[in-house]
Design goal:
By secondary structure, this protein is mainly alpha-helical. Helix content is 70%, strand content 0%.
Length: 276
């Protein structure tokens, strides 16, 4: 916001931003508060915002009904491994598409971006058939590997790497540095803000993914946390108090990652071409 903005205009802008934030977070607050309600109170009409009776045992009872730690570990392993693999693969592609000139480079980049127009559900069946033939069906590797290379990630990193002066690479070549040394010792350290943006996006994508793990996995011990939440849905009655308690627990890791990397996220978005 410009310093020349008048005081009334600032008041209006900040008021709109605060109201917008409250509207966006009301559902989250409602979920968190409802996780302490009894099942009967959740079904009350009209609904109550604050619990009439705080039931903290919803969390312990929900955890005791299924192996929460196993599903949590599966989600952490899938998310962490997939994010590391995504950063590595996408950064290599972005490095090549931004710092090396070769015939067809721009066409490859445009073709890669064009894949964003293809609905994900269209390619799920062929991708599943491919991983099934490779023996990765019903394994965590089948969840991790196929979505690792993302056009969005390559775009974010390439846009940032274009801002890195080519003179640094030329100087490194004169000093005898190889391609991978330039990538690992110059490009990657300087691309920290963009890597932070992609890290946050990748963690959100992998942690909240439900459809692809549902297609690949049918063994219960390999369920991620999102798949495990579906186990609470009964044929006649759903224990929404337990579902909401587990939902709150599943949100906490994402919130922690966002708060921890917020500073890098703002810097990265401001310099990767994602700003409006």
């Amino acid at each position: 916001m410009s310093r020349k903005t008048s005081l009334p205009a600032r008041v209006v802008i900040y008021t709109v931003l605060v109201l917008g934030s409250l509207i966006m977070f009301v559902p989250v607050f409602w979920i968190a508060l409802s996780s302490f309600k009894g099942l009967g109170e959740i079904y009350l009409s009209p609904a109550t915002f604050f619990p009439k009776k705080w039931i903290f045992s919803n969390y312990s009872e929900a955890i005791s009904q299924f192996p929460f730690l196993r599903y949590l570990w599966n989600s952490i392993f899938v998310t962490t491994t997939a994010t590391i693999l995504t950063l590595f693969i996408n950064s290599l592609a972005a490095f090549a598409l931004s710092k090396y000139k070769f015939p067809g480079r721009d066409f490859i980049f445009i073709l890669m971006l064009a894949t964003l127009m293809v609905p994900v559900r269209v390619i799920m069946l062929p991708v599943y058939m491919m991983i099934a033939r490779l023996g990765m069906a019903n394994t965590l590797a089948g969840i991790i590997i196929p979505p690792s290379a993302t056009p969005t990630g390559v775009f974010i990193l390439r846009q940032y790497m274009l801002t890195i002066p080519d003179e640094l690479i030329d100087a490194a070549k004169i000093d005898g540095a190889g391609h991978f040394q330039i990538y690992s010792r110059i490009i990657m350290p300087l691309s920290t803000p963009a890597l932070a943006v992609l890290t946050v996006f990748s963690v959100m994508w992998r942690w909240n993914d439900f459809l692809w793990p549902l297609i690949v996995i049918n063994r219960e011990k390999l369920f991620t946390l999102q798949l495990a939440l579906a186990r609470f849905r009964g044929e006649l009655v759903t224990d929404w108090n337990y579902v909401l308690a587990m939902t709150v627990l599943s949100i906490l890791p994402i919130a922690f990652v966002f708060v921890f990397m917020q500073r890098y996220l703002v810097r990265g978005i401001a310099s990767t071409g994602l700003k409006g």
